[in-house]
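Running this now, will post back.
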Amino acid sequence: MAQRNVLPFRKNRKVANDRLRTNASQSALRRHHSHRGRGIPTAIVWAVVIAAAGWLYLDRDGHLDSAAAFVKAPAHDALSASFALCSDGHRTNCVVDGDTFWFNGQKIRIADIDTPELSPPRCEAERIKGEAAKSRLPVLLNAGKFSLSTGFRDEDKYGRKLRTVSRAGHSLGDVLVQEGLARSWNGARHGWCQGQ
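Update: finished.
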């Protein structure tokens, strides 16, 4: 019997071409992913580099020593002024608290230390220690010529200039730390009250 209305089977060319493209892109992806595990991912390389740099700049207590890491000490001390405690008047050369002072009309935050807060203190022990640090800082600043060194940041979010204060290559902030009136700055504030 002859079949008149039957057409011979022919593959749809568009479907066949789409399948070829899909198979080709899948095999290319497989080739790409097979090389992926062979190299070291960039993120791991950068993490190792950053960790090594941080380790190089840790001080002996394990804190990031921003002053030592990023500050080049001046060759000689050339700055001086007569410092008093700041009052409500015009501030040129005066001490605000244990880690903040005005020098030649510019507000300076000592970059390598943190002292107890005075505005407001969170407890009586913090107030007493904060007042002692505030009283000690003008004595240290008035004891002779000093240097101001800029670290990796020029100023903080309050517009205070971030500086390390040194005399004969030694940080005045370290003196306050040794006397128990400050802590080395490690990037975070810590409480001065019992249990903090």
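The CA atoms of residues 59 and 167 lie 20 Å apart. More later if anyone needs it.
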